[in-house]
TrEMBL record:
<dbReference type="InterPro" id="IPR038729">
    <property type="entry name" value="Rad50/SbcC_AAA"/>
</dbReference>
<dbReference type="InterPro" id="IPR027417">
    <property type="entry name" value="P-loop_NTPase"/>
</dbReference>
<dbReference type="Pfam" id="PF13476">
    <property type="entry name" value="AAA_23"/>
</dbReference>
<feature type="domain" description="Rad50/SbcC-type AAA">
    <location>
        <begin position="6"/>
        <end position="53"/>
    </location>
</feature>
<protein>
    <recommendedName>
        <fullName>Rad50/SbcC-type AAA domain-containing protein</fullName>
    </recommendedName>
</protein>
Length: 190
């Protein structure tokens, strides 16, 4: 199972026009400050983070254009999509990932590797209440806009995990983290 594409709309620095990030078997996110590296990684953590707090969409996650205020009285929305491919199916390998996602796999054309498309949609109402949904994309129109979705069960979501440790911008945080890990390390060796 391999993450092949991430699409982002209205999340952090990504505006309403969807941005597509294609990934290879090994991908590096390089760029100047403000290019969106952390936004891409945080977007994946919102979908597949290991804790509820990592997966929770926050009001600050919704994109607001620079120099503008959030629209008064309007519902804000964002979405993040992840396309996974299963090259092991084409190679005839038996892996644990295949059975979990088998019923949602799709072929775009003959001879291609099967894939699964997963979408996180979040909406924030005027009171600041956020509703989020993680769903399989079962069908899409010719533009790629989803036309048929099905909720992703928690068990399926737990089969995909993103372990993301955000950069610590404050040197004091690094020192506190290092000191704590030095104190805990000997206990782990026992």
């Amino acid at each position: 199972m391999q993450l092949a594409v991430v699409r982002i709309s209205n999340f952090w620095s990504f505006g309403p026009k969807p941005v597509e990030v294609k990934l290879d078997s090994m991908t590096y996110l390089l760029g100047p400050n403000g290019a969106g590296k952390t936004a891409v990684l945080t977007a994946l953590a919102r979908m597949f983070g290991t804790t509820g707090s990592m997966r929770a969409v926050l009001p600050s996650d919704f994109h607001v254009a620079m120099g503008e205020a959030p629209a008064e009285g309007e519902v804000a929305s964002l979405w993040i999509e992840a396309d996974f491919t299963f090259p092991e199916v084409k190679e005839g390998e038996a892996t644990a990932a295949v059975p979990i996602f088998f019923s949602h796999m799709q072929l775009q054309s003959a001879g291609e590797v099967p894939g699964v498309r997963i979408r996180l949609t979040a909406e924030m109402d005027v009171s600041g209440e956020i509703e989020q949904r993680l769903e399989y994309v079962l069908a899409a129109d010719e533009d790629g806009t989803p036309t048929q979705l099905r909720g992703m069960p928690k068990l399926d979501r737990q089969a995909i995990q993103v372990h993301y440790l955000p950069a610590r911008r404050n040197p004091a945080d690094h020192i506190a983290y290092s000191a704590a890990s030095l104190l805990v390390s000997p206990a782990l060796l026992i």
